[in-house]
Amino acid sequence: RLAAKPPLLCNHTRVTGQASSRSKMSYSSEAQVDEAFNAVSNTFKSNATKPLEWRIRQLRKTWWMLEDNRERIVTALNQDLNKHRQETLPVDVAGIQNACLEALAHIKEWTKDEKPRRTDPFNLFGGARIRKEPKGVTLIISAWNYPFMELFEPMLSAIAAGCTTILKPSELAPASERLIAEIVPKYLDQSAIRVVTAGPKQMNYLLERKWDHIFFTGSTAVGKIIYAKAAPNLTTVTLELGGRGPAIVTPSADIDLAAKRIANAKFMNAGQICVGVNHVFVDPSIKQKFIAALSKYFDEYRSGQSR
């Protein structure tokens, strides 16, 4: 469902502005990276992010950040990706807002202590509990094809877990990067959540810090570099990498419906999506019929007449 109901946030003030420029912004300096890293590290050590009240407030503020700037997000993604508002609003705005609402609905359940199902015989008379502690300082590196979703959804997980975060938006989506760097400081706790901008050269310096967890979305080649950089500190890493998305069409399939859905998957987000179809395996007996149906829907998408 679309995120229509806003979470309660006391003393909420809307923050609005004009659409961001397409020009690329300057990268964060080494001094700025150090300052941001030290700030969020010190905040984590202070335990300021552990209380549920802090986490809940940041989740609510994230919802409002998206709500207040939905038209600016539409404009930024149109500038970066030529993306239509009908795709941006349900995916890149409401989709992240729904993730906010899900975290708000379940955060108490996610963070409560658990009793182990099995207990060592030597500890049968003890009171063992599993307590969930935040990992620490996290680095989230976003991809250019979903510059908001691939940055903010992992951030929500970090916030819900009580971690502090450095956000690194993609430099290949400059309008989105500029907007993210502008709005995050206006809404979220800057002692715990910071934005740094970086190209490939600056990324090397950023990755030299001792992170507690790194979340990266992008290519396999860069994922290998990040893994290698994280290894000396035994930093845990989550990699969301590109892959191949095959489709299989059998003789019993609804050929027209299969072609329509495959075309939709290929054209969604201009094909720049991990679940996009890259190749199709078709039974020889229906090959020509399938090609004709797929060509029809491809022509509709190219002409803008698809429904």
UniProtKB/TrEMBL annotation:
Gene3D superfamilies: Aldehyde Dehydrogenase, Chain A, domain 1, Aldehyde Dehydrogenase, Chain A, domain 2
Record-linked Pfam families: Aldedh
Domain of life: Eukaryota
GO CC annotation, single: cytoplasm
Annotated keywords: Oxidoreductase
Gene Ontology biological-process annotations: aldehyde metabolic process
GO molecular-function term, one example from the UniProt record: aldehyde dehydrogenase (NAD+) activity
Occurrences of domain Aldehyde dehydrogenase (ranges): 24-305
PANTHER family, alphabetized: ALDEHYDE DEHYDROGENASE, ALDEHYDE DEHYDROGENASE TYPE III, ISOFORM Q
Family (UniProt): Belongs to the aldehyde dehydrogenase family.
The protein's name: Aldehyde dehydrogenase domain-containing protein
Source species: Photinus pyralis (Common eastern firefly)
Lineage: Eukaryota, Metazoa, Ecdysozoa, Arthropoda, Hexapoda
